[in-house]
Each structure stands twice: as C-alpha cells, then as structure tokens.
Amino acid sequence: MTTTTKRLNLRFVALAIGMFAIGTDSFVVAGILPSIAKDLDTDVPTSAELITAYALAYAILSPVVATLAAQVSRKVLLIGGLLVFIAGNVGTGLAPTFEVAMAFRVVAALGGAMFTPTSAGAVVALAGPEKRATALSILFGGLSAATALGSPIGTAISGVTDWRGTMMFVAGVGALALVAVLIGLPAIPRPPAVTFGQRLSPLADARITVTLLLLLVAYSGLFTLYTYISQVFRPATDGNGTTLAWLLFAWGAAAVVGNMFAGRLTDRFGNRIVINTAGTIAVIVFATTPWSSRHQVAAFVAVMIWGACGWAMLVPIQHRLVGANPAASQLSISLSSSANYIGVSLAPVIGAFLLDHVVGADHLGYPAAGIIVAGLLIGELSHLLIRRRARSGTDDAPGGTSAPSPTLAERR
To answer: Could you give the CA distance from residue 230 to residue 8 in angstroms, rounded to a whole number?
Structure first.
C-alpha cells in the first residue's frame, strides 16, 4: 500500500468515525427507552417520539441543508455539522424535561443532516473514480458498525449509568470524529450547485416515487418492532439491560452480514427476488415473535434473521432506483435516504398507536408484519411500472434524452 493510499484511507476513516457516531445516535434510543421514560416521568411510547423527532428532522433537513449550504466549504460544513451534532446530544443528555430533550433531538438531527451527505460527497471528491467504491465502503462501514457495536454499547452504558450516560457517549464519539476531521482532512472542492427543485425532480417519475414508497412503508414496519424491541423481547431478556445489549449486538451483526451479501445476491438474482425473499422471511419472523420473545435462544435467532433480512432489502431497493432511471440515479439515491428516515420516524408513532389501541407488546409483530406485506405489494407495483416502461422504450432522462434501458437484472 502506497503512502498516498494510506493517507487517503486515514481520511476516510476520520469521516467513518463521524458516520459511526451519527448511526449510533439513530439506533441507540430504542434500547434505552425504558430508562428515558422512567427518568423523564413519561411512558415508553411517548419516549419513542424522540426517535420520530430525530428521524423526521433528518429526512426533512438533509435536502434543505444540501441546497442552502451548496457554496459553503465542505470541511467547514463537516466541522459545523459535528459541532451541532455534539451540542444536540449533550443537550439531550442534560435535558430536564421531555420537551427539552425533544428539541435537542432535532438539533442533533440537524448536525447529522449537515454531516452525512457532505461526507459522502467528500469521499467521492477525494478518492477519484478508481478508488470510489473502496472509499464509500469505508465510510458506510462506520454506519454498519453503528448497528453492530454503537447501539449495544450505548445500551450497555445505560445499564451501568443511565440513558444520560449513553447520550454523553454518543457526543464523545462525535467529538472524536471532530478531532479526526480537523487534523486529517484537507480542503475539499465544492460540488456543482443543485437547486431544491432539481433534488426533488425524480419524484415526477412514478417508477421512482412508488419504489421510494416501498422503502418508506417496508422500513416503517421493520422499525415499528425495532423501536419497541425492549418491550417486545422483555420476557426473553427479563428486563436486563446487558442481555438487551447483546440482543441488539446480534441484530446489528446480522444486519452487517445481510447488507454485505445483498449486493452479490442482487447482481445474481435481481432485485425483485432479493426484496421479496428477504421481506417474506422478515414477515414470518415478525409473525412468530409472540413465541420467540418468550425464550432467550429463540429471541437471539429471531433478531439475527430479522436484522439480516431487514438490511438486505436496502441494497436491492437502491438497485431498483438506479435501474429505473440511471440518468437520475444520484438524486434518487439521495431521496432514498429521506424516504428511509421518514419510514423510521413513522415507526414509533405507528407502534404507539398499536400498543395503545390494538395489541399488547407481545403481539406487536403481527401488525408490523402486515405493514411489511403492504410494502412488498407496493414493491410489486413499482416492478410492474418499471417493466412496462422498459417494454415501451420510453426511459426518459433529464433534457429529453433517452436513458439506457434497464438490464435484465434491473428488470427482475
């Protein structure tokens, strides 16, 4: 490995640490909801609104920040994003009331919305075409590591101290990323400006809009159960924070594996088969949670299968977005992040309604499975729209040109 390559990899690792912090912040709250509810004198479903506030604010603010800050130095935006993120988590950890904690969750989301898209653009600019895939894999490796390590570590810290200690841990990781970016990252060229309207332009294509709806609905179902994982699997964990942390670790480790193999499986079998197979297995796992949540071994098996299948759906959905209209692929992938976070933000609200009016925690897997099924049906509609357009040969690209027709794998 050359000196230049080592230097580049260290720069990417600096950004990956930031992604680890932001990813941990996204997932860790689900594991500490009981502690938050007890300390802030509220119930678990209400505490879950902290997840909604963070995810919804992130989804809305990401394209807005990208548009408004187009002329700001990339390094300044990365540093500013981390500072805002750290402040949001410290503020959350010190919040005297639930309402104050909610406000600081929005602040933390603003920091994440400033950092994440900018970091992805930064690695592309620094790496060059020949090392772009490696750079992105290092960057998003930080996000994957957050599901496998960040969330369970944060949950374990909550068991030793309380939920406030967990938020300080997240802020501390953000501070580490800040130091790494300050020291290790050079100036980064600004990308061409893209207007807010241009960022939303792929929504005019029904194929892309329906595929984004698949992502939103499916991940609403997947995270309805994840949000209340401490409640659903309480019989298996016996309310023990350490056991719950290990359960989250198993979920996260399996998610990394599922995400890792999803690309190869999609290249071989096509996105339709991978989406439907992974989604169907997740539905079966959710439908059996009334039994698996009562037994510790069964609980670990269930969350590992669920984690692998849930994250295995993300890559083929993005593959479908790219194949639907390759000319708009970058903007479509950007919108997929917002759709994903909107789905995650809806999950606590949906789960709270279901727990209050429909089912107990031990049967939450049933309606969550139904939501995933609805997502899969929407996915079939997007598949039909893509095939119909491909047959008619009218895959329009921006500017009135004809985009390349989808390959056989993209149509499947």
So the answer is: 40
Please state, in angstroms and rounded to a whole number, the distance separating the CA atoms of residues 207 and 369. 24
| 137: phi then psi, degrees, rounded to nearest 5 | -65, -40
- In terms of Cβ atoms closer than 10 Å to its own Cβ (0-12, 13-18, 19+), residue 103 is middle
Q: What is the pLDDT of residue 141?
A: 66
3-state secondary structure 190-242: CCCCCCHHHHHHHHHCHHHHHHHHHHHHHHHHHHHHHHCHHHHCHHHHCCCHH
pLDDT in tens, 288-318: 999 999 999 999 999 999 999 988 888 888 8
- Give 402's strand partners: 396
Count other C-beta atoms under 10 Å from residue 313's C-beta. Answer: 29
Compute the average pLDDT of residues 138-146. 70
Residue pair 356/46 in contact (Cβ under 8 Å)? The answer is no
* pLDDT computed for residue 136 by the predictor: 58
Give Cβ neighbours of residue 103 (< 8 Å, ≥ 6 apart).
Answer: 91
Higher pLDDT, 112 or 149: 112
Residue type, 68: L
Q: Please classify residue 96 by burial: count the beta carbons closer than 10 Å to its beta carbon, then call 0-12 exposed, 13-18 middle and 19+ buried.
A: exposed
Distances (CA, A) of 359 to 352, 353, 362, 380: 10, 9, 8, 29
Position 128 scores a pLDDT of: 60
Give the pair of three-digit tokens for residue 229. 């994982």
- What does the alpha-carbon distance between residue 284 and residue 369 come to, in Å, rounded to a whole number? 8
For residues 47 and 153, the answer to whether their CB atoms sit within 8 Å is: no
Dmax (CA) for the chain in angstroms is 61
pLDDT per residue as tens digits for the range 325-334: 887 766 787 7
DSSP 72: S
Q: Residues in the chain, how many?
A: 412
Residue 26: how many CB atoms within 10 A of its CB? 25
